[in-house]
């Protein structure tokens, strides 16, 4: 794990001693071991470690993950009076050590040491297994992290239905029109039915007034409930929305096309596409002209086709005005429903109007499944000078009323979890905020420093990710580590945990002007140079995002980007298309594989990292003043041999520490070029 620095200050000629504490499972005491005998803080550490163990930790900036190695310690058995028979102490004795904590400290001070002020902790694990032979005892230690053995979501209703883990700002709509916006809903599962209605789990955070909708699959729409109130309630540790037994939903469905079926030279049709745009302020017109006509009935019929059938008992409707009425017997507006075979499928109602009229409605009720509706307008003229009228058709639509049938899910616009850190009750809206909130609130890691201090690296990340918004509605349990890795990858950052539990945030910035360490050839040994593999380059990317709330594996947004220069420079014959499905990142997708601003969005961030090979340096660190190096530190190099990395100058080049391997008195490091 990342180094817990303390005030550790190595000096030349040092002799590093690892101080190992192996705790009983109840934490009441520990056994103490080291490379050589030493007393620290009045505790005698027995120099019984026989092997040369190593601790390796690394970050992958291309996948945004952090990893740390396990640890194996080989101890001398029967090594004197301190521990006379270790094999009997660790298992089946009077104390329990399996699954207990193991802490490792790096001591660079000689002789007896009064305290741990200058001794940083470099590792924390737990004892997983013990083995022995006649002379040695081997401890197998696995790294201990805050997310170990944690699965989320992990809060359940009394009916054992998991409560969603939710982050982000959700916005539904109150309109019964199928194109109502915004349209950001999330699924919430059914948990209980009783005489008062159906209860659905919203999450662990309550909102006093939020919209609740159902999903209508044949039209791919979300429609808010009508005709019955819904209640917020608390049921144990979860919050629920309760839909009454009488709960129903009402919606309007617009046609998908229109065409003239019957026309008349005396009737002028205009702008009829405006008649199904869900906008009452626009209209299509049918105009009957002044003069030049004989006594007769003049008709015009427009057919509107729907992409799904209107069911028996439902209705089609038209809203219209009549204006400029003059010397006509009446205007007649009729709706005719047709089934797939063109047969009449409804009971039409004629509306005869003998004057100007506003906000009139005509409708027809389906007697069979219908797929289209004809709007028939008649102008009836018998006598008189200069007959005229205009029918202004505002909207044509299906008007559907249904009761809740499927009780597996409804859909909510309730927002997700609050930040929680630094006492904030503000809702999480950004993807990096979701990560910190999860670590703070669910894993129980204190991410707040003294005063108003934030975790290392947070302030810069917070600024760089200000437009990377998040919506994530997690319904199915997953390991906490997998959850965090997903958030990190989609958010373009990495988190590490020090051995004492402190969190650090790391990402590659647009540019660098300073470094944590400046190294030259005298600080290093066994220097080697390589580059990121050709297979890691991205020439084409396809990103799916904004997952559909009701359709699994279906995304409502897609962005692509391509860079032909990369293919040309490195003789890549065909596009290397990399596909990503983003479930949490809602905005901040980006668009450029070779961006001017690497942190403008997801595509820009990973495109910047993977649009060209990057130099990798591996070396041993021989300067002990650099042993406090940590993952994510930025380094520069000068006076190197050779003077360039391939054909790249070290001048103005910045490298990030991406791997550290610690042995007693030794440090191996890997650096990757980041600018």
Characterize the structure shown.
The radius of gyration is 36 Å and the shape is elongated. The protein is mostly beta strands and 675 residues long. Helix 2 runs antiparallel to helix 4. The chain is built from six helices and 46 strands. It folds into six domains: 127 residues; 86 residues, no CATH class; 147 residues, GOLD domain (Jelly Rolls); 86 residues, Phage tail protein beta-alpha-beta fold; 76 residues, no CATH class; 77 residues, no CATH class. The two termini are 26 Å apart. The strands form ten sheets. Strands 13, 14, 15, 16, 17, 18, 19, 21, 22, 24, 26, 28, 30 and 31 form a 14-stranded antiparallel beta sheet that branches. Strands 5, 6, 36, 37, 41, 42, 45 and 46 form an eight-stranded mixed beta sheet that branches. A six-stranded antiparallel beta sheet has the order 2-1-8-9-10-7.
Give the name of the CATH architecture of the largest domain.
Answer: Sandwich
> CATH topology of the largest domain, which one?
Jelly Rolls
Could you give me the name of the CATH homologous superfamily of the largest domain? GOLD domain
What's the number of extended β-strand segments? 46
- Terminal Cα span: 26 Å
Relative strand content: 35-45%
CATH class of the largest domain: Mainly Beta
Identify the overall geometry.
elongated
- How many helices in DSSP terms? 6
What integer is the average pLDDT?
Answer: 89
Helicity range: under 10%
Quaternary structure type: single chain
SSE-based structural type: mainly beta
**Unreliable sequence segments:** none
Characterize the biggest β-sheet: 14 strands, antiparallel
Cα-based radius of gyration, to the nearest Å: 36 Å
Number of domains: 6
């Amino acid at each position: 794990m990342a180094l817990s620095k303390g005030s550790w200050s190595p000096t030349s000629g040092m002799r590093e001693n690892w101080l190992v504490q192996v705790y009983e499972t109840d934490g009441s005491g520990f056994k103490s071991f080291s490379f050589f005998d030493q007393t620290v803080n009045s505790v005698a550490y027995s120099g019984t470690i026989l092997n040369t163990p190593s601790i390796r930790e690394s970050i992958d900036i291309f996948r945004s993950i952090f990893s740390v190695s396990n640890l194996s310690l080989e101890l001398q058995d029967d090594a004197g009076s301190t521990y006379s028979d270790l094999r009997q102490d660790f298992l089946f004795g009077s104390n329990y050590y399996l699954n207990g904590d193991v802490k490792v400290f790096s001591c660079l001070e000689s002789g007896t040491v009064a305290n741990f002020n200058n001794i940083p902790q470099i590792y924390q694990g737990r004892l997983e297994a013990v083995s022995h032979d006649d002379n040695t005892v081997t401890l197998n230690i696995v790294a201990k992290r805050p997310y170990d053995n944690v699965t989320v979501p992990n809060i359940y209703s009394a009916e054992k239905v998991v409560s969603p883990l939710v982050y982000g700002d959700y916005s539904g709509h109150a309109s019964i029109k199928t194109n109502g916006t915004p349209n950001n809903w999330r699924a919430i599962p059914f948990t209980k039915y009783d005489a008062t209605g159906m209860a659905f789990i919203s999450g662990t955070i309550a909102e006093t007034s939020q919209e609740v909708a159902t999903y209508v699959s044949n039209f791919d729409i979300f429609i808010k409930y009508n005709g019955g109130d819904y209640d917020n309630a608390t049921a144990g540790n979860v919050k629920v929305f309760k839909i009454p037994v009488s709960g129903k939903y009402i919606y309007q469905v617009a046609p998908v096309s229109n065409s003239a079926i019957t026309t008349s030279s005396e009737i002028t049709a205009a702008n009829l596409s405006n008649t199904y745009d869900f906008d009452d302020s626009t209209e299509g017109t049918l105009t009957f002209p002044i003069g030049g006509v004989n006594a007769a009935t003049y008709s015009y019929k427009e057919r509107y086709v729907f992409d799904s059938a209107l069911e028996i008992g439902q209705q089609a409707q038209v809203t219209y005005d009549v204006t400029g009425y003059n010397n006509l017997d009446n205007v007649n507006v009729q709706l005719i429903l047709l089934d797939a075979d063109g047969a009449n499928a409804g009971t039409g109602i004629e509306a005869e109007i003998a004057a100007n009229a506003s906000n009139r409605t005509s409708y027809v009720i389906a007697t069979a499944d219908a797929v289209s509706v004809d709007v028939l307008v008649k102008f009836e003229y018998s006598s008189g000078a200069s007959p005229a009228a205009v029918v202004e058709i505002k909207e044509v639509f299906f008007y559907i009323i249904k009761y809740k049938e499927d009780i597996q899910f409804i859909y909510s616009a309730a927002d997700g979890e609050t930040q929680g850190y630094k006492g904030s009750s503000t809702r999480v809206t950004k993807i990096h905020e979701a990560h910190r909130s999860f670590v703070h609130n669910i894993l129980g890691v204190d991410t707040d420093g003294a005063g108003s201090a934030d975790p290392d690296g947070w302030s810069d990340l917070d600024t760089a990710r200000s437009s990377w918004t998040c919506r994530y509605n997690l319904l199915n349990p997953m390991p906490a580590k997998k959850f965090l890795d997903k958030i990190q990858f989609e958010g373009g950052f990495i988190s590490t945990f020090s051995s004492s539990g402190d969190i650090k945030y790391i990402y590659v910035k647009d540019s660098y002007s300073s470094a944590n360490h400046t190294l030259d050839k005298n600080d290093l040994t066994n220097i080697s140079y390589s580059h990121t593999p050709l297979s890691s380059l991205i020439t084409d990317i396809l990103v799916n995002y904004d997952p559909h709330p009701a359709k699994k594996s279906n995304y409502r947004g897609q962005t692509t980007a391509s860079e032909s220069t990369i293919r040309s420079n490195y003789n890549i014959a065909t596009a290397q298309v990399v596909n990503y499905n983003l479930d949490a990142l809602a905005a901040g997708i980006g668009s450029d594989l070779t961006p001017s601003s690497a942190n403008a969005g997801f595509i820009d961030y990973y495109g910047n990292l993977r649009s060209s090979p990057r130099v990798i340096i591996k070396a041993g660190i021989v300067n002990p003043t650099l042993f406090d190096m940590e993952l994510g530190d930025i380094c520069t190099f000068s006076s190197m041999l050779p003077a360039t990395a391939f054909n790249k100058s070290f001048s103005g080049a910045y490298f990030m520490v991406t791997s550290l391997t610690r042995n007693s008195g030794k440090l191996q490091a890997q650096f990757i070029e980041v600018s």
